[in-house]
Structure prediction request, 92 residues.
Amino acid sequence: PTPLLSTEAVYESQTGLVVAKEISSVVEQFNLGQKVIAATVDNASNMDVALKNLSFLKVGCFAHTLNLAAQKVYDIPAVSSWCAKIRSVVVR
Prediction:
């Protein structure tokens, strides 16, 4: 497993440039230089901007993408109705 290198509190708007600056700081702190080529992130546009500024490849988070897809499916009226019926039987 890959260790977590750092968590940083950010007290300003988390724009792509701000995120890129924070990531760059951690990369420098651990002397990673050109060793980082990709990052796993959610689908937020600020992360796209950050990774583009850092010249990192984007690897979308599968769990986040799957969660978004499940939410979209649940928004379909027939699906949410079906789930409500199942819940009423199972919860009893």
User: Anything to note?
Assistant: The beta strands are 38-41, 57-60.
